[in-house]
Design goal:
With 303 residues, this protein is of the alpha+beta class. Helix content is 28%, strand content 20%. Strands 1, 2, 3, 5, 10, 12 and 13 form a seven-stranded antiparallel β-sheet that branches. A four-stranded antiparallel β-sheet has the order 4-11-6-9, with no helix packed on it. The longest helix is centred in the N-terminal third of the chain and has 24 residues. Bound molecules: 2-oxoglutaric acid and fe (ii) ion (FE2).
Length: 303
């Protein structure tokens, strides 16, 4: 869906835009069906190995995985875009309603960054220990988890809920009008993960970024944000994708990026699921991740 001039202006000045009605049910449903199939497969696999007490087959999308997770955390081990490598998800990466809006923000030559995730943020009562893509995320800028070579890349984060994301469910919180400060030093601690140095976190213009299904939260790579705790009984499902101008570094050169919209290029990987999937498989197999240097400061800082 195209953005209005007012929305584009808002993104430029505030560094964040919550835009409802970007995606339709038929854009999202194939992705949800594919995730449901994955959860179903895992449920039967674990049930047959006596790892869980039930397949929880009668529970809906927003509940089922939390019950499985409470009994067996392994269920999320391979649950991300690059490990599932599903056909519907691959197709969604070049969804035209989404790209129409992205084009309004970064122009018509668009590359899909390999920094992309599927998150099932678990209800706080699902079990005692919740971490990674299932847990809370501390204050950060996406530039803080990207290497410095992407400094000049114009990257837009698209945070896409798969059901209405409310404060109670642990939607994001964003700091508006702060992206123009550029990169803020990040530190990494065992307890908090990678986060903006606490004394550098802006003190005002907070926005709880509730977003209805079909909507998208757009952010720049310098927009400070965090993921709140899920205090509801439901799983807060979302995907977060990043798009940027083709030809600019993604900050993860060893993972596959590919053009998804262009007036000149042939969109080969966007049209070829097998090629995309193989590229991911190979680069994960080569585990070049050791070569990845996020911009986290090495200096000690206690929080
Ligand atoms: O989903 C969350 O809670 C945090 C997501 C995030 O940091 C991102 O999409 O960049
Ligand atoms: Fe983020």
């Amino acid at each position: 869906m195209l953005l209005s001039n007012e929305q584009i202006q808002q993104f430029r000045t505030k560094g964040v835009l919550i835009a409802p009605n970007i995606l339709t049910e038929s854009d999202l449903q194939p992705v949800i069906d594919e995730i449901n199939d994955y959860v179903d497969r895992k449920a039967y696999e674990f049930f047959n190995k006596d790892k869980i007490s039930s397949t929880f087959a009668d529970l809906p999308f927003e509940l089922r995985i939390s019950k499985i997770y409470a009994e067996c955390k392994e269920v999320v081990q391979e649950m991300d875009i690059m490990s599932m490598r599903g056909k519907a998800m691959h197709k969604f990466l070049s969804n035209s309603n989404l790209l129409d809006a992205v084009e309004n923000l970064i122009g018509s030559e668009i590359t899909c960054s390999p920094i992309q995730h599927l998150r099932a943020k678990m209800p706080n009562n699902a079990c005692e220990e919740i971490s990674g893509l299932q847990g809370v995320v501390p204050w950060h800028q996406d530039a803080g988890v990207t290497s410095e070579e992407a400094e000049n890349s114009d990257i837009v984060t698209c945070w896409i809920p798969l059901l209405d994301a409310t404060k109670e469910m642990g939607c994001m919180e964003v700091i508006q009008n702060a992206a123009n400060k550029g990169y803020l030093e990040h530190i990494s601690s065992k307890e908090y993960g990678t986060t903006i140095r606490p004394d550098l976190i802006p003190k005002n213009n907070f926005l709880v970024a509730e977003c209805p299904k079909g909507g998208v939260v757009f952010m720049t790579k310098y927009t400070p944000h965090r993921g709140l705790q899920n205090n509801s009984n439901l799983v807060r499902w979302n995907i977060d994708l990043r798009f940027q101008k083709t030809g600019t570094p993604t900050g993860r050169a060893f993972y596959p990026d590919f053009p998804v919209r262009s007036k000149h290029d042939i969109l080969q990987m966007a049209n070829d699921h097998a090629q995309w999937s193989n590229n991911w498989e190979e680069s994960i197999g080569n585990s070049k991740e050791e070569a990845f240097h996020p911009r986290v400061s090495k200096t000690k800082f206690s929080i």
